[in-house]
């Protein structure tokens, strides 16, 4: 009997040119989980998300999503399977309004877009006030909310977030993390790459530590938080 | 003076119709479409074919000629541009392909219809005369048609899903792709709209003057100036830029010999490059 994995990467090998950044990474994301991926710069965290989402074509290994092999599919196909991805930067359409950004998130859907937009705007009250403003006029935190809102437009079965707190002021970081928890509570499994290891581990069921493109450690979020090695390496002692 | 202004608005409307498509195609496909002017010519000649050779009424002939030009651009995307995109062709490759395509279209036109001027089968109409200011019926028609098309484009860009996706694509292509926007489909819409607008411009040019195989090529130069003046990739900028270039060209004939008209758009182009290279509406 299969466990309740939504998403699974098995021994992924991937990279940009001749150089492999991932040298066989395996991760699992189960229903209702937040799973974090931490590790030093260059460990291959973002590359892992890109390989799962088809932006990079894995050289070896498999990506299984909802019991289906999606290895090597292009991102536009993977979206249709029900996975959403929020890149680290340039993750909004700046000259479009908040509402239009959300609308683009549901591009592949025929109808029900309006209702969904209103639902998302209720979840992100800050955005509600600015729904007709251009995203380029918004603050960094609000832009991140727009990006996550856009990704939620399709009610994805798995959400991939690449460093959602990057470049945000500390008070906004907390807000973004709260939103991540809130989105997860409504039943969306989330795989998140973060620099801010302490914060993300504290809200994650499980976490993986990557190093040099390989799995270094894995465990429950709380355990990793208290792990001496993790503490020494990534949590700043 | 008012007479020149009116000529300028008519010329400017034609330039703007060409500039809109050139700007959108550049923005969404990263393609400097040197064949854009020749699509204007093609639109005029196909209309001529339906109107004069096949004896259809001019409005029906223009509709057919314009739609057919648009369809040809869609076919070219399917058989040529898409393949180049998928191979990851760089902007220089695309540029040279476009120049080649321009030459092919122009020479096919010469081959089919010869190199000399032709004209539509027009009912004779008198110029309208307002207290000594002359304006031709075709001039009025040009400005009205161009204005209606620009309003239509504005509505498409702001109100329709396709139009919003075009703007999204021009903002951030990678994000558009990972959001699930059907990029190839939006590109086809861009070709369809851009090229048929160019064809309308070509037909209107033919109505106001004559049709000749190099008309589009010569229109392309002020069109480039209009696109850069308005801010590359901004269709609204292209509209305004087109009008400014058209009006400046015609107004210049008050003080300069009319053969310097084209030079005027280049002077404007150079000034924009020096003073505000991002164009009047450019944000980048």
Automatic annotation (TrEMBL), chain A:
PROSITE patterns the UniProt entry points to: ABC_TRANSPORTER_1, ABC_TRANSPORTER_2
SUPFAM superfamilies referenced in this protein's UniProt entry, alphabetically: P-loop containing nucleoside triphosphate hydrolases
Annotated GO MF terms: ATP binding; ATP hydrolysis activity; branched-chain amino acid transmembrane transporter activity
Domain ABC transporter, chain residue ranges per copy: 7-237
Pfam family, one: ABC_tran
Record InterPro entries: AAA+_ATPase, ABC_transporter-like_ATP-bd, ABC_transporter-like_CS, BCAA_Transport_ATP-bd_LivF, P-loop_NTPase
Gene3D superfamilies xref list: P-loop containing nucleotide triphosphate hydrolases
One BP term from GO: L-amino acid transport
Keywords of the record: Amino-acid transport, ATP-binding, Nucleotide-binding, Transport
Family: Belongs to the ABC transporter superfamily.
Protein name: ABC-type branched-chain amino acid transport system, ATPase component
Organism this protein belongs to: Methanohalarchaeum thermophilum
TrEMBL record, chain B:
Main location: membrane
InterPro entries from the UniProt entry: ABC_transp_permease, BCAA_transport_permease
Example of a GO MF term: L-leucine transmembrane transporter activity
Keywords, ordered alphabetically: Amino-acid transport, Cell inner membrane, Cell membrane, Membrane, Transmembrane, Transmembrane helix, Transport
TM annotation in the entry: 5-26, 46-76, 88-113, 133-157, 186-207, 219-247, 254-275
CDD domains per the UniProt record, alphabetical: TM_PBP1_LivH_like (cd06582)
Membrane topology: Multi-pass membrane protein
Any one of the GO BP annotations: D-alanine transmembrane transport
Highest taxon, organism lineage: Archaea
Pfam families reported in the protein's UniProt record: BPD_transp_2
Gene Ontology CC terms, in alphabetical order: plasma membrane
Protein location: Cell membrane
Keyword hit for Cell membrane: yes
Similarity comment text for this entry: Belongs to the binding-protein-dependent transport system permease family. LivHM subfamily.
Protein name, per record: Branched-chain amino acid ABC-type transport system, permease component IlvH
